[in-house]
Design goal:
elongated; 10 helices; mainly alpha; 75% helix
Length: 223
Amino acid sequence: MGTTQEAQEPSMEEEKGGLVRFFASDHRYVLLGTSVVALIGMWFSMQPRSSQSFLANVYALEVVMYYALMAWVVVSLVALVTKLVHWRDYQQKSPFAKPAAKHVERICSYVVWLFSAVLFVDRAIMGFVAIVKSAVGSNANPQDFVGGMVYMVYKGRGIFARASPPRSSSPSSAPSSRSSWRCSSCSCACSRSTARTTTSCASSRSSAAASPRCTPPWCAARR
């Protein structure tokens, strides 16, 4: 019965993804990996608070989080020393390698991740929000690099908004001028044609006086 359960447990672990298995299983890298996260959270806690910090009014809570992260780092250092002393028989001699201890370490590692994430949001995210608000409402270029960049981008935002060029009325007036030119050309051609017809009729009439049979039909119609 116990053998069957032991055979089923690896199959259930294989169904989980690699990342889920890493965070949901009791393995030896919990102390080592989470201690790096705890150090990052402690570094954020030592940074100055911004005007948008939500931990400014709960200083006691931040102190608790800071010392909890420090305690985790200390425990990780003790486990590392134990590992170096009992290199070959660490699983048998170290109390941190017991199954119950691994389970507690994994649960505590979630708390370390939570505290570090809260400190990251309070110092990094809310700090950037405070810089943006200060740069937008400032009348001069701030001295810090990030604030100066935000100030220049905000003040020069009109450069990125390009208006469309106004439409010129000359192309629309071109067809009318062309059509008027064509009409004038047609009028000129018609007047020239009329003059030629009149001249032709006059010469035809003078010829018809001598010979009536030679009168063209269009000149006869003008009579």
